[in-house]
Amino acid sequence: MKVEQLRISEARLMARLAELAAIGATADGSCCRLALTDEDRAGRDLVVRWMRELGLEVRIDPVGNIFGLRRGAEDVEPVMTGSHIDTVRTGGRYDGNLGVLGGLEVVQVLNEAGIVTRRPLAVGVFTDEEGARFAPDMLGSLVYAGGLPLAQAYATVSIDGKVLKEELARIGYLGDAPLPLARPHAFVELHIEQGPVLDSEGITIGAVENLQGISWQEVSITGQSNHAGTTPMRLRHDAGYCAAAIGHFLRQLAREIGGSQVATVGKVDLHPNLINVIAARARLTVDLRNTDEALLAAAERRLAGFLEQLAADEGVRVEAKTLARFEPVLFDKGVADLIARTAVKLGHSCRPMTSGAGHDAQMMARLCPTAMIFVPSVGGISHNPAEHTEPAHLAAGADVLLHTLLELAG
Ligand code: HGY
Ligand code: MN
Ligand code: MN
Fold first, then answer.
1. Does the C-beta of 105 come closer than 6 Å to ligand 1?
2. Are 199 and 379 in contact (CB under 8 A)?
3. What is the pLDDT of residue 1?
């Protein structure tokens, strides 16, 4: 068979996706493998087994990133693909997993065709991409790209009070491979869009050219608990009200800025969190994103001003801690154009895309020419058990990955 006729096996890809999705499956159909939990370990163990069955050399680095290496004809910098298999609590079965299992599928097709590429190939599984348990997100690839010192990553404390290094050791993924293992010749990540664009336009492949900036903060409010029935409104220092006011302000702010600006309060914890007690404390998260760095910084300043005013008006103490801050990223035009050309050559509709979500590729772009392949998310739904992508689209994305990697690896 000619190389250009090579296609991945949709059935095999779907079977691996289903087997991995069963790990951490919850009653509502979600996939829950929060980073460095036992479920994450089980998922890692399964992927490592598949890597070994495919004849890949498996290396684990000090922050738990896993790499499956496939020899090339020449001992030069590898072409790398990959993504993550950790999930949010209500994860779907494709977010991250598709990029890792698509990479394994590429390896299997090349093995069966007896093809040895000039450059080695590597499939990466990056630690804690979601950042939902240990902030920031893309933590493993950020360390890999030199954006976060290993010691600082090790000391990170999770939302459930665990220390990252101890959790890595506990699940047996505190590796000793060089960090970084390699500076790839190029990096390509296959991922579901997680947004509504491709699905609404009926387009199969997104050639991702850029990715928006991300600002994560944890806001702590200290007020005064008091009796819900006896305390006049003018005497309240109500942390619960302040949390709600911040959420309302951010909705208005995002609407006012418009364009790609988004704002989310995803996590709110009140203390003592009881029906008849004015909340003494509130802790909430703020996720701000924009494709334009100046607008994102302006949104952060507007929020800071609002928090200062709120503290004065309500007689509470407000503190904001940065959990993640990544500027917008431009991917490599050459790699993105190669993805687009490959999609068209394979007969798929394609359009340039911006990524609204963060991805490991944004960190690998600091090391080498990098771009992403998107496939449609039905209804734009993600981080939700209803996350769905048609099998034919999953296969199309993996085929584009196969031929893009073949082109890059020679
Ligand atoms: O937050 C994100 O964009 C990604 O899902 N970690
Ligand atoms: Mn993801
Ligand atoms: Mn995600």
1. no
2. yes
3. 82
